[in-house]
Design brief:
Its main location: membrane. The protein has 252 residues and is of the alpha+beta class. It contains seven helices and five strands; from the N terminus they run H-E-H-H-E-E-E-H-H-H-E-H.
């Protein structure tokens, strides 16, 4: 028999868990974790240079320096699995006051996600930057681990409902706590990696960098998962204490 308080806590925890999973899934699939605002181009020579940079950027072969330069200068955005730049739809776009721009994105392949980072981006002879390499790998692995833990917790909860058992709730709460920590660590790894990249890159003048809405979604998902974990742990502990008290009363 489940007390009404415990049942309410379980329902609220389930809603929080679902919301967190949706937020994190949308965030992982979006390229708007970080974005750059570049100054407008008014000279044909600069426009020709940007077209060449655009062609290299849209090539499937990933070069960190080329990709970074293109995003810096073409109002680019970057996510965990995508990198994007804004490309013009008109050949003489640089002569227009408000040219129409199209956001073109290229996905990171799994092999590109595991590619080592170098102390000088794009220079393979500069030596591997171990910190940036593992920050990059963690930032795309940790959200997958987080979602996997939530899915595992959901399966355990479904099995517990079928069996009419309250025992796995504490373990499910611990899974959600680990998932929340993984989500928070994802954001931390991403921000640290971007900061280190900017330190070793040639950052153009008059280019602004800011956080995107996708990163905030991942940041919101973390406390939601932790609140769900707290409710589940409280329900498990409270239900256990109530059960032992009832058992002791019946024995007495």
């Amino acid at each position: 028999m489940v007390d009404n308080r415990h049942a309410t806590a379980l329902v609220i925890a389930g809603v929080l868990s679902v919301l967190a999973s949706v937020y994190l899934s949308v965030s992982v699939g979006s390229p708007h974790w970080y974005r750059y605002t570049s100054p407008p181009v008014r000279a044909e020579s600069n426009a020709t240079e940007l077209r060449a940079l655009q062609d290299e950027f849209l090539d499937r072969e990933f070069d960190e320096k080329t990709a970074s330069d293109a995003m810096f200068r073409m109002n680019g955005t970057i996510g965990l699995w995508w990198r994007c730049v804004q490309t013009p739809t008109d050949a003489h776009w640089y002569k227009e006051a408000d040219p129409k721009m199209l956001l073109e994105c290229v996905s990171f392949t799994p092999s590109q996600q595991l590619t080592p980072k170098y102390k000088e981006p794009g220079n393979h002879n500069s030596g591997e930057d171990t910190i940036r390499t593992y920050l990059w790998r963690c930032q795309f692995l940790l959200p997958l681990v987080s979602l996997g833990l939530v899915v595992l917790g959901g399966l355990l909860g479904f099995c517990a409902c079928l069996c009419g058992s309250f025992t796995p709730v504490l373990f499910i709460g611990l899974l959600h706590l680990l998932a929340g920590l993984c989500s928070l660590a994802t954001v931390c790894c991403f921000l640290a990696g971007m900061d280190l990249l900017h330190r070793v890159s040639v950052f153009p003048d008059h280019v602004d960098a800011m956080l995107g809405w996708s990163l905030y979604l991942a940041l919101i998902a973390s406390p939601l998962q932790m609140m769900a974990a707290a409710l589940l742990v409280w329900a498990a502990r409270s239900h256990g204490q109530t059960y032992y008290r009832m058992t002791a009363y019946r024995v007495a």
